[in-house]
Specification:
homodimer, about 375 residues, alpha+beta, Rossmann fold, 3 domains, five-stranded parallel sheet
């Protein structure tokens, strides 16, 4: 077999967004020929991939064709043509995460059932096929309604607090998840290679923008008790083992006010809650993903310094050619590192980039991040 | 004027080697559209540049054409068509480092004269036009003969210790530099933007492979006295000011056994002695170069953790399709980070990549680096 740095060894990535982009930056270090596919000809990966295929990742034939000359195929988004990946796997291609994992993750109902079957702690839930079925759970208010498929980046999720909210409920197959009275939202990213070696990143803490359900701030490491930390890590590791998965898995969890840790949801790929690992850890999540899918030894996940990640979201009232107000001011702050995703057009709440602020102490990093958030506005 | 992240703001780099490649990795963070030019269609930058132009950087017309639609032009190697860059500058293009700086640096004779004129400490030297002229300096043995132009990566430099060596002397315009009885070779990289702001990286120490005059190990930070450190930094800063240069300048220096600091030579671009800054410093030399040439605020150069850089050179007896023996073993060592430059063919002593080993203490990083050097062999 060729080496992973050989000219004829190509790694295919379905999706050409910012996660693929940061994966490319790491792939360059190892001379891994990363090829991406996206239907958007101006996707963040389009100009800097080893090869870029401008086709739809939901198109069966296009995915099969794309996979043909790749040694390993991976994804940077779950919403891909899984049937095509299954066929490629059947033909002997290495597909990581495995299509079977994508099947579980793609449907939030199947995901919840999987947690239940494997005794992985998660909030109680009910599955409904449409809006009409919701009313039978009236006595269970309040809950979060999550569309089983197609939700992404905060879309397809909303709170149903009482009968008043029933009108706006999604009329689609959904998970109704009992409201979790949580103290914190945390995340653990864990990696596993074909040899079965695993490695987890330290627990981080997320602060969401309640309006759009997107991560606004991420604190690394999380400020939690040792007991919670151990629980969270054990749950993440048990999850990747239960999935028998190869690759990177982000496990988002709630810490309840009474000290329990419950899985919120999982993503089998590099994740928003791991961006900071580029600056804060010995090995970044992107490098770890590549190590895992190529069956290389996993890297050290040790913390180099604490950090805070701030997502740069498009301001609500701007649409068009992007302008990063205040970015040069932010670049003056020592330890503030910008990552701009290469999207030329901004839209309300679009993820346009992120900034990581690092410092010897977490509190300093938090102060810098708050400053950045005040300074930088994504406008048009 | 467009912003540096605008779609029509392109930055041109003459040369498509490993330095350009690492520059691209940083440029992606800031969504800077980095376009490279190299006559080698398989140059390390060829597949991952925003645009790649397969033309010779010594060709006047090709450089002019390349520069036309670029907002800023820079280099990753000195041996470029300077006349074309002068013309582009005359037409109002920003060219950093300035062509005038490239003129001084390209010719080691002019470089030495520049140091002398500006009272920058350097070893005594003589200029000769050819081999025949060398014999008039017989009473000055031993010295290093350095070809005034065209030397690169250890080529064009040799020791002339006595009359016996005269036969093998280069028959070309050269600098004869009095042998420096040095204790250490050190380097300081300093950056300067158009506003005149400067920032220097901490002093590092280089260990050369005597056989081929290439850096084999680099230790960061250097183990030197505070007095030497201050001298070295002051000299580097005075040099970039004297050149009135915008961009990144690597100043390689000798520390003599009697405690003096003398400039060996300078390079107005990212440099082999700054690779470790990717892992070891808050801002890498590549990011700093981009900040400098785009007149952005310079970044913090603070040390995150000590590190040792090992060049991965092609083994002497191998030529052909590259094979990195032992690389996976090396990747098991925590804090060992590989950078493979994407050259598919190895040659004796060709720079194929580098590895940076980091640790909380320099001695630990040194131990890891020695281990890596034992493990990794670049073969075919």
């Amino acid at each position: 077999m060729s080496n992973w740095y050989s000219e004829d060894f190509k790694v295919g990535v379905l999706g050409g967004g910012q996660l693929g982009r940061m994966l490319i930056q790491e792939a360059i270090n190892y001379d891994i020929k990363l090829c991406t596919m996206d239907k958007d000809s101006k996707a963040p990966c389009s100009k800097i991939s080893y090869e870029f295929t401008n086709k739809d990742i939901l198109d069966y034939e296009a995915v099969i064709e794309f996979g043909k000359d790749k040694a390993v195929i991976t994804v940077e988004i779950e919403n891909v043509n899984i049937e095509a990946l299954e066929m490629l796997e059947k033909r002997g291609k290495k597909v990581f995460p495995q299509p079977a994992v994508l099947r579980i993750v793609r449907d939030k109902g199947v995901q919840k059932d999987f947690f239940k079957t494997h005794n992985l702690p998660t909030a109680p839930y009910f599955l409904v096929n449409d809006k009409a079925e919701i009313s039978q759970y009236k006595n269970q208010f309040p809950f979060m309604q999550k569309m089983r498929v197609g939700g992404y980046d905060g879309r397809g999720v909303q709170a149903i607090k009482s009968e008043v909210d029933l009108d706006k409920a999604f009329d689609a197959p959904s998970v109704l998840e009992k409201f979790v009275d949580f103290e914190k939202e945390i995340s653990v990213i864990v990696a596993r290679n074909e040899k079965g070696e695993t490695a987890h990143f330290p627990v981080v803490e997320c602060e969401f923008n309640p309006e759009v359900n997107l991560v606004e701030f991420l604190f690394a490491p999380a400020q939690i008790s040792e007991a919670i930390e151990e629980d969270a890590i054990a749950i993440a590791r048990r999850t990747i083992e239960a999935l028998d998965m190869v690759g990177l898995l982000a496990v988002e969890m709630f810490v309840t006010k009474d000290g329990r840790v419950l899985i919120n949801e999982i993503a089998p790929r590099p994740h928003n809650s791991g961006h900071h690992t580029i600056e804060c850890n010995v090995t970044s999540q992107y490098e770890q993903h590549l190590r895992a899918i190529l069956n290389l030894p996993l890297g050290s996940t040790k913390i180099l310094r604490p950090g805070v990640m701030v997502n740069l979201l498009g301001e609500p009232n701007y649409e068009g050619k992007v302008y990063y107000e205040g970015i040069e001011e932010a670049m003056k702050i020592p330890g503030v590192k910008a990552h701009i995703y290469g999207k030329s057009e901004t839209k309300p709440y679009r993820k346009m980039g992120h900034i990581t602020a690092t410092a010897p102490l977490l509190q300093e990093a938090i102060d810098k991040a708050r400053q950045v958030q005040q300074l930088v506005k994504v406008k048009a």
